[in-house]
Amino acid sequence: MTNITRGYTPTEPVPLFRQPQEASAVWAQLKALACISSLAFLINLVVIIVTSKRFKTAPFMLIQNFMVIDIVSSLVTAGPWAAGVWADSLGLGMISSVCRVQGFFHNTLATVFLATVALSSISRFLYVSSPSAYCMFFTNKPVVRLLMFTIWFGAGFLASPPLNPGTWGSYGKFEGTCWLSWEKGNLPSLSYSVFHTLITLGPTIVFTILAITVTILKKNSIHPAPTPSSMPVSNQPRLPPPTPTMIGSFRGGTNLLNMEVLYISCAQFLLYLTLWIGITVVESLLIVDWRNVDYRVVIIFTFLYQSRSLFHPFFYILLSAEIRNAFARCTTYNVVNT
User: Is residue 7 in a domain?
Assistant: First the structure.
């Protein structure tokens, strides 16, 4: 079940596609695809329904956007991906227009994800360093919704140039799907891929590091409160609280939920980086000649990257006490009613 061809010489032309797979391998991929897409859709839908009834605060809208990304991804990528797996099994090529559309969806969703991670980090950074700026952008639901809309619209706009062949950038075929092309020697494609990576991944890394840094510094700078007898008497009016609070979470107000948003976004971002680096290295460095690559290696990386939607709900439950409480209250309510 390997596509390594024996007895060829380096001077032979490289075939465009690997050898057709066995039927069992094709069906295994299609079954795995169906399981990943359906489970990702159902699990994230349940999580978003249960938690949306319990949380009414603006910080939770950032977590909610992660769930929406996973739901949309399971809907818009499953069909073309299955068609690509079937075409690969016959040694056929995907229609170029379908490949571009599929690459556009992948690119847009990845950009929205990275922008949401960056926005979560910015939220935490402002919460600690500039409460007034945080109140301006992240306590008003219409403003947060406007930020979400801007992210989705901007991601689609940024992913649109490769839709027009011969302009800037391209989407290359990659194991039943399409993604940013890293074809060596193709300057327009490489320049767009590098630009897109820098403009999306760069700010996300910078703001995440900033958010973690200011949070750690703030935590280390907290000292025990002095006793009332040791405090100097002052006739000046007291300053308002240094950070805004908001009713909406069960135990810790906005501060706790804001921290949990940072935990979740960092965990998802770390998983994304791990799988994205792996799949990009495989695509750009290893797949130079299909005859030298065991297709199972590519399939594993592809399915791992696409199955992030299955891992994310576990992050919500493991890293957020508020979400665990929401599920516990929902379960208790159902038990009492039965």
Answer: no
Coil/strand/helix, residue 91: coil
Write the pLDDT tens digit of every residue in 82-109.
Answer: 777 777 666 666 677 778 888 899 899 9
CA–CA separation, 309 and 294 (whole Å): 26
CB 70 within 8 A of CB 40: yes
Give the whole-angstrom CA distance, residue 280 versus residue 299: 13
The dihedrals phi and psi of 140, each to the nearest 5 degrees, come to: -100, 115
Q: What are the φ/ψ torsions at residue 236 (nearest 5 degrees)?
A: -75, 145
Question: What is the C-alpha to C-alpha distance for residues 118 and 201, in angstroms, rounded to an integer?
Answer: 9
Nearest C-alpha neighbor of 307 from the set 334, 259, 274: 274
The DSSP letter of residue 87 is H
Q: Is residue 4 part of a domain?
A: no
Reading the block at residue 206, the tokens are: 């910078």
In a domain? residue 153: yes
Are 118 and 207 a contacting pair, CB within 8 Å?
Answer: yes
Does 235 fall in a domain? no
- How far apart CA 137 and CA 143 sit, in angstroms, is 6
For 219: left if phi > 0, alpha if psi spans -120 to 50, otherwise beta; the answer is alpha
DSSP of 212-266, one letter per residue? HHHHHHHHHH--PPPPGGGSPP--SPPPPPSS---BTBSSSHHHHHHHHHHHHHH
Six token digits for residue 211: 């958010």
Give the pairing of strands 171-174 and 177-180: antiparallel
pLDDT at position 7 is: 44
Q: Which amino acid is at 234?
A: S
Structural domain for 154, as ranges:
23-219+276-328
Size of the chain in residues? 338
Per-residue pLDDT of 110-130, as tens digits, reads 999 999 999 999 998 988 888
We report the CATH number of the domain holding residue 185 as: 1.20.1070.10
| Residue 318, H or E segment | helix 308-319
